[in-house]
Predict the structure.
Amino acid sequence: MSNTFKAKIWKLNDDIDTDIVLPTEYLALKSVEDMKPYAFSPLRPELAGKIQPGDMIVAGKNFGCGSSREQAPEVVKALGISCVVAESFARIFFRNAINNGLLLIECPALHDAVSEGDVAEVTPGEKIVVNGQTFEIASLPENLMDILNAGGLVKAMRKRNGLD
Amino acid sequence: MGMTMAEKIIALAAGVESTKAGDIETVTLDKLLSNDGTTHLTIDMYHKLKHPHIADVSKLVWVVDHNIPADSPKTAASHKKMRDFAREHGITYYEGEGVCHQVMMENHVCPGELIFGADSHTCAYGALGAFGTGVGCTDYLYAMVTGTSWLLVPESIKFNLHGKLRKGVTARDLILTIIGRIGANGANYKAMEFGGEGLHTLTMSDRIAICNLCVEAGAKTALMEVDDIAMDYLKEHRREPKAIVHSDADAVYYATYEIDLDEIEAIVAKPHFVDNVVPARECLGVKINEAFLGSCNNGRIEDLRAGAAVIKGKHVDPKVRFLVVPASRSVYNQALKEGLLDIFVDAGAIIMNPNCSVCWGACQGVIGEGEVLISTGTRNFKGRAGHKDSFVYLASAETVTASAIAGEITTADRV
C-alpha cells in the first residue's frame, strides 16, 4: 500500500479530444511549461490555473480522442496531474501518455460516483476509494508499468541500457 | 483458426506464422512517416540519446504539410530543424508537395506493409491494403532508432459493402454515416476492415477518404481488400506490393456490419463531434462564414472535380470565404490542366497551396469567434478550426461547395 496517494478530483465529460487538452494554436510554444496555462482552455479556460500538483482528472469515455499530438499528455503531466481516470481512453493518447510517464486508469464506474472537488485515495493496480465507496482497478501489463515508473519510454530505454 | 487482414500483416511484420487479437507482437516497421506537427520534438529527443542512431534511413519519410509556408518565426525554426536534420541524414523529405497522407499514397504505400505515422490519420493507407497507424513522437523515435515497435494485435470489425452509392452521395457521406452509427469510440483499439462487392464500385479516392476517417471512430487501422482497382493505382504509381493478404473465411471478427450503399444519403456532422451526424437536409439554412474544400480526406482531384461541377457558372456568396486547397502538387497540377482552378477562381474562391490548412486550425484560413465553417476536413472538435467559440460542420465536397454558393448549408441538388 506504500504507493497509495490522495488526490483532489477535477471532473470532465465524454470525448475530451486532444484539441481540448491543448489547442493547435499553442503547439508552437517553446516549451511545455509555456503551454500549461492553455490546457483544456476551449472547454474550461480557468481549469489549468486551478489544478494543483497531485490532483487527478476523472473523465467519461474516449478521453484523448483525436490528434496524435504528444503535447497533450505532456501538458497534463506538466500540470502535475497524478493520474487520469476515465471510462475509456482513445488508443493513440493511451500510448502517448504511457510513453510520457502519465498514469492512466480505466474505471468505468467512477465518473458517475464522484463530484468535482472530492478527494480520492488511489492505489494503482488495486483500487480507488472515494466517498466511502471502493472501486477495483486493473493493473497495467508489467512492460507498461516499467515505462511508467521510469517516467516515460525514453527514460525507460536509458535505464534499460544502463545510461541512467 | 483463420486470421484477419490485420492479423496477417502484423504476423508478416513480426516474422511469425500466425498471431491473434490480444497478442502483443514486436514488429519491424516498413515505413515511418512524420510531419511538421511533431518532428521537431522527435529531433529534440533524438539528440538527448546517448548513442543516437537511425535503424534504416530508407524507411523514413518526412513531410512538411501542417504549417507550410511557415507563418511565424517559431514555425520557420521548427521547419529548419526538420529540413537540416533530413538533409544531414539523407531522409526522404517533402516540402510543399502536399498533405502527408496524400504524398504517402501517391509515392510510398504498398499493400501488406506495416507503417507508423506520427499523425492520427495514418490509417488512410488501408485503401491500398497496408496497415497504417498513428503514433506519437516518442513511439516514432523508438521505431526510428530501433526499426521496431510493439503492437497489441487488434480485434477487427468487418464492414461488408453492398450495392452502389447513389448520384450525389459520396464516400465521405458513407464513412460519416458509419461513424455516426458506431460512435466516436465505436472502433477504439480495433481494425475496421472493408469488403463486399460494393467495395469494387468505389474509386481509390473514395477508399482513401473512408480509411482516412476511421480514426474518428477510434480505430487503430483501417484495411480494404486489394482488388484490380487498387492494383491499377499501384501500377500507375510504379510500385509493387509487399504482400497481398486476404482475411480467411473463418477469421474471427468482433462484429460484422452489412452496409447497403444505396441507402446512404448526404450527411453533415454537426459541431463539436464527428459522430454527431444528421442527414444534410436537416441542416439546411445554417448560415456559414467560410467553406473549405481540401485536406487529406477530401482534397483529391475527384473532390475538386465534384466541387467544380457544382460551382461552374455560379458564384461564391459575397459573405463567404471559400478556400480550395488541393491535397498535393500532383492534384494541383491536374486541376490546372483540367481548368478546374479557373472555374473556382472565376467563382470567387481562394486557391491555396497544398497543405493541411484550416483542417487543423493553424496556418491560414482559421475562423474567428462565433463563426461557422463548413468543411471537408477531418474534424469538427470545439476550437479545432480557430477560435474556441466557433463552429465546424463536416460534409462532402459537393455539399461544401453548394453551401459556399448559397451562404448557408445546402446540398448540390438545391443550388
Observations:
- The helical segments of chain A are 18-21, 32-35, 47-50, 71-78, 91-99, 110-113, 142-150, 153-160.
- Chain A has a mean pLDDT of 94.
- Chain A touches chain B at residues 15, 17, 19-20, 23-25, 27-30, 41-43, 45, 61-62, 65-71, 73, 88, 90-92, 95-96, 99-100, 141, 143, 152-154, 157-158, 161, 163 (CB under 8 Å).
- Residues 5-160 of chain A form a domain with the Aconitase; domain 4 fold (CATH 3.20.19.10).
